[in-house]
Amino acid sequence: MKELVIISGKGGTGKTSLTAAFAALSSNHVLCDADVDAADLHLLLAPQIKQQTDFIGGSIASIRPADCTRCGICIEHCRFSAISDDFVVNSIDCEGCGVCVTFCPEQAIDFPPQKCGEWYISDTRFGPMVHARLGIAEENSGKLVSLIRKQARDIAEENGRELIITDGPPGIGCPVIASITGATAVLVIVEPSVSGLHDMQRVVDLASHFRIPVLICINKFDLNPDMSATITTKAGQAGLQIVGRIPFNPAFTKAMVEGITLTEYRQADPDLLTLVSTIWQTIVQSDALQKKQADSILPIINI
Questions:
Q1: 42 and 176 part of one domain
Q2: 65 near 37, Cβ under 8 Å?
Q3: Could you list the residue range(s) of the whole structural domain that residue 187 is in?
Q4: Is residue 295 part of a domain?
Q5: CA-to-CA distance for 97 and 93, rounded, in angstroms?
Q6: Are 38 and 16 in contact (CB under 8 A)?
Q7: Short-list 28, 6, 4, CA closest to 16
Q8: Weakest mean pLDDT among 93-97, 135-139, 248-252
Q9: Model's pTM, two decimal places?
Q10: Is 160 within a domain?
Q11: What is the pLDDT of residues 121-157, one digit of tens each?
């Protein structure tokens, strides 16, 4: 079983649109939306939920007034100023660290686990999908990402699916680390700009740290040909394969507005569809996804 995680250094690079298109072009796979903070793959794939489960993440402190002696130790130790002078815990400010629970001499503070979101197992027109929704301002997104990736792997193993296609979150933080750890390969979607090049360097360095093979796809490459050429050069210096260069095309946005994938959009340019299909075949046949690439990936240098 293999897992391809599609990531980007920032949001808005076309990552989800390409993930949905690849889902339509692939077969015998399981889909996973690991961008739990701002999941949107479901907007294009219209999943039919078959199983819904609460995600129990962290805990929130709650002081029992009847048992509290108002000694002030909890206020003194709380680094987030979440406890008022009236010894009431502000659930928004509380980070769930449990320090107040540990130091309370009267054991007057409860620490119940909290529902932080939900995760789902669904059917789509392109196969099974595991996705989630993290609550507003909730923590433990990395834990939720790990959970749904495990569920996707379990489904793949139970049903003999050969590939997991994961729509990862943007950036390089905890959710991204939870998304790529143990993956077969990552596909980085990059836009041709100075910030895009910088963001690509960061995510490549992150993947290199975990010794995960990296593929590069330049989206909207024709908006800045010079920067696209620079990205290509830098990727080559780092030994990274450019699997494709996609021109700017409103068809991506129009398909998204209709809630369908690019491959289903009837007015899409046939050349564009052929290009995306060729990119997918290049990814499938790449050394990275076939585990033929060297264990270590060199970071991009001299940017």
A1: yes
A2: no
A3: 2-56+118-285
A4: no
A5: 11
A6: no
A7: 6
A8: 135-139
A9: 0.88
A10: yes
A11: 999 999 999 999 998 877 778 999 999 999 999 999 9
Same domain for 163 and 20: yes
290: in domain: no
Number of domains composing the chain: 2
Do 77 and 195 fall into the same domain?
no
Residue 97 CA to residue 95 CA, distance in Å, equals 6
pLDDT of residue 220: 97
DSSP category for residue 239: T
Tokens found for residue 72: 């002030």
Distance (Å, rounded) from C-alpha 81 to C-alpha 92? 11
In single-letter form, the type of residue at position 92 comes to I
φ, ψ (nearest 5 deg) of residue 135? -65, 160
For residue 138, what are its two tokens?
């909730």
Residue 241 belongs to what H/E stretch? strand 241-246
**Number of neighbouring beta carbons within 10 Å of residue 174:** 15
Based on the fold, state whether residues 40 and 92 are members of the same structural domain: no
Separation CA 148–CA 120 (nearest Å): 8
39 contacts 201 by C-beta, under 8 angstroms = no
Give strand pairing partners of 256: none
Q: Of the candidates 25, 43, 31, 28, which has an alpha carbon nearest to the alpha carbon of residue 6?
A: 31
pLDDT class of 295 with cuts at 50, 70, 90: very low
Distance of CA 263 to the CA centre of its chain: 23
User: Are 232 and 251 contained in the same domain?
Assistant: yes
d(CA 163, CA 223): 33
Q: Indicate which CATH number applies to the domain containing 79.
A: 3.30.70.20
We report the CATH number of the domain holding residue 131 as: 3.40.50.300
Residues 207 and 244 in one domain: yes
